[in-house]
Design goal:
The protein is mostly helical. It has ten helices and no strands. It is 67% helix and 0% strand. Keywords: DNA-binding.
Length: 190
């Protein structure tokens, strides 16, 4: 007897949704398969048809949220003043904010930020290294710094209920990248 693909996909999604509801409330090491299946309304056997354990659910969920290189928009550095592709990151973060705000938060998966950075680095490297003569090792450190800052500030923005308008946040991030933190602070001396 063959299962219907729509039913199979819905069952899998119901299990993922149940897991996510629990993950939003507590750390993964406190979540059991029994809790997930009870919340989703299935038995443990059904869970194991789709996943090996709760860590597998998280891994599959994260894989679906990390854009593949071919899913990212191409970056073009049109002029000398162009900086990092903040609009691309804002769009990606906004699209997945329900998940990113938890995964990148205090109780989230510490490895998720690295996965997110590593998925975007190749696209940025291709755009920048073709235009600028910069040591690739040094550029790796620059990218790590900038991407960590971008992920951090966007995570904070969501935790603070988007207290700053999105345009202002992007403008602030561009200003910080182009002029540095101290110039921004010093420009506001009383």
């Amino acid at each position: 007897m063959r299962k219907q693909p729509e039913v199979t996909a819905q069952t899998r999604q119901n299990l993922v949704d149940a897991f996510w509801a629990l993950y939003c409330e507590k750390r993964i090491e406190k979540i059991t398969v029994k809790e997930v299946t009870q919340k989703a309304g299935y038995n443990r056997g059904t869970f194991y048809e789709y996943f090996t354990d709760v860590y597998d659910v998280l891994e599959k969920l994260e894989e679906a949220l990390i854009p593949a290189i071919d899913e990212l928009p191409p970056i073009s550095i049109a002029n000398e003043k162009a900086g990092m592709p903040l609009d691309m990151f804002m769009a990606l973060y906004e699209e997945n904010s329900k998940y990113y705000s938890i995964l990148l938060g205090d109780n989230g998966d510490p490895a998720f930020a690295s996965k997110l950075k590593n998925s975007t680095k190749p696209v940025i490297k291709e755009a920048f290294l073709g235009k600028y003569n910069i040591d690739p090792i040094e550029f790796d450190f620059i990218l790590e710094f900038v991407l960590s800052a971008m992920i951090g500030i966007m995570s904070y923005w969501f935790r603070e209920d988007k207290i700053l308008p999105a345009e202002d946040l992007v403008s602030l991030m561009y200003d910080l990248m182009e002029n540095g933190v101290m110039k921004r602070i010093e420009s506001n001396i009383i």
